[in-house]
Design brief:
Aminopeptidase; protease; single chain; alpha/beta; Peptidase_M17_N_1; hydrolase; metalloaminopeptidase activity; 9-stranded mixed beta sheet; Peptidase_M17_C; Leucine Aminopeptidase, subunit E, domain 1
Length: 459
């Protein structure tokens, strides 16, 4: 789905963004103020009103921004007005801070997203001309990357298995002149990706490692996304209620692909690598078992105490490969643990960072991009919890405490030669509809990273 601004036109209807309270309507013509008063327009967040012209047309449209407290509670809230406005092309006529105008413009585009692959989903017909003074190309690139992420997550596993995830990556590579290679099936064993192969070997669609490279100058960034296209839990089978959303277990891969699309579309001066271990965690006679001990690409052995903690296994081999290159920054994204959701809910992206400056830059990027994150610690005292004694590492420590932290510590063991590593334990799903965020797949942390990369990598 293409999310873009309308072309410039002299016939666009003026659209005023108005904050709630005080003299919000004072700058409007007297007739418009009277009309707003008659219709009870108070500039509440997402409230909209069309002001008629003497000839029966539309003189202007009013959209409420609410107050600062309301906007903090509902980011992109003003974008909800898009669905209420009549068909037409609008342009921002009121003066706003760049930050507020940018958030509204991005929210407006994101509010136009519909997942219509299987059923018609009418999109809003109100269009917006790119606001003056803003980088429209950047906003459109961000919206397009987010839409790509949502499409990938929303597609059911029947149509988004490892094959289709590879195809989506290939199409992205072709569109931007990137190189791509895939290691498939038993070749994973020959090229030393044993845990990717083990997790995916029971599925009818072969496991693979997808490797995309783009850019020839600048600092090096490697993005790694968990690509478990469906997770039954393996022999530790999930109950049906827990399996219902497992098409989203490739949300980490979808998010890094969306971010990669943003980076390449904007032509950032960096050397980008994207690694996606793409598998299905299925049940068959050759499925891996609780109690098995696997040897990773890194040489570390892993005791399997739960086959439903498979994401960290495939990520581990990919992280080991990334670490061999010693890039300037490695970032992994994964729908990894339920513990993260218990800790921060579905909206926040918990992240871990080995570098304090990177964490600070990310927090600033999150604030400027309306993409909230929250730092959790690589808490060294918990290292003992992932050491079972019979092997180097335990993939599912008993006790249930600090599940997201122990998973992050597990992954960190595979990044030993690259000082700067960040890990995101995302949800990848919006459980209830919100302005600019329809129910379903959603990117998390990508916009924050995009805004933070210039400071992180001195671009």
């Amino acid at each position: 789905m293409t999310l873009t601004f309308a072309p410039q036109t002299d016939s666009a209807t003026p659209l005023y963004l108005l904050e709630n309270g005080g003299d919000a309507l004072s700058d409007l013509p007297p007739a418009a103020r009277d009309w707003a008063d008659i219709n009870g327009f108070t500039a509440g967040l997402g409230q909209s009103l069309v002001v008629p012209a003497p000839d029966g047309g539309i003189a202007m449209a009013l959209v409420g921004l609410g107050n600062k407290a309301a906007r903090k509670r509902k980011r992109f809230g003003a974008a909800a007005a898009r669905a209420k406005l009549p068909e037409g092309v609008y342009h921002l006529a009121s003066q706003q801070t760049d930050a507020l105008a940018q958030e509204f413009a991005l929210g407006w585009l994101l509010a136009g997203y519909r997942f219509d692959r299987y059923a018609e989903q009418p999109a809003p017909k109100a269009q917006l001309v790119a606001p003056s003074g803003l980088d429209a190309t950047r906003i459109e690139a961000i919206a397009a990357g987010e839409a790509a992420t949502r499409d990938l997550i929303n597609t059911p596993a029947e149509d988004m298995g490892p094959d289709e995830l590879e195809l989506a990556t290939r199409k992205l590579a072709e569109a931007h002149g990137a190189e791509i290679a895939t290691i498939l099936g038993k070749a994973l064993l020959d090229q030393n990706f044993p845990m990717v192969h083990t997790v995916g070997r029971a599925a009818t669609r072969a496991p693979r490692l997808i490797d995309l490279r783009w850019g020839s100058e600048g600092p090096s960034l490697t993005l790694i996304g968990k690509g478990v296209c469906f997770d039954t839990g393996g022999l530790n089978l999930k109950p049906g209620a827990s399996m219902g959303l497992m098409k989203k277990d490739m949300g980490g891969a979808a998010t890094v692909l969306g971010l990669a699309q943003m980076i390449m579309s904007l032509g950032l001066k960096l050397r980008l690598r994207v690694l996606i271990p793409a598998v299905e965690n299925a049940v068959a006679g050759n499925a891996f078992r609780p109690g098995d001990i696997l040897t990773s690409r890194k040489g570390l052995t892993v005791e399997i105490n739960n086959t439903d903690a498979e994401g960290r296994l495939v990520l581990a081999d990919a992280l080991a490969l990334a670490d061999e290159d010693k890039p300037d920054l490695i970032v992994s994204m994964a729908t990894l643990t339920g513990a993260a959701r218990v800790a921060v809910g579905p909206d926040l992206s918990p992240f871990y960072a080995t570098n304090t400056e990177d964490a600070d830059a990310l927090r600033k990027g999150a604030a400027s991009s309306a993409d909230p994150v929250w730092e959790l610690p690589f808490w060294d005292p918990y290292e003992a919890m992932i050491e079972p004694g019979i092997a180097d590492l335990d993939n599912a420590p008993k006790g249930g405490f600090a599940g997201s932290i122990t998973a992050a510590l597990f992954l960190r063991r595979f990044v030993t030669d690259t000082p700067r590593y960040m890990h995101f334990d995302i949800y990848g799903w919006n459980p209830t509809a919100a302005p600019g965020r329809p129910k379903g797949g959603v990117g998390m942390g990508a916009r924050a990273l995009l805004d933070a990369l210039p400071e992180m990598l001195e671009l």
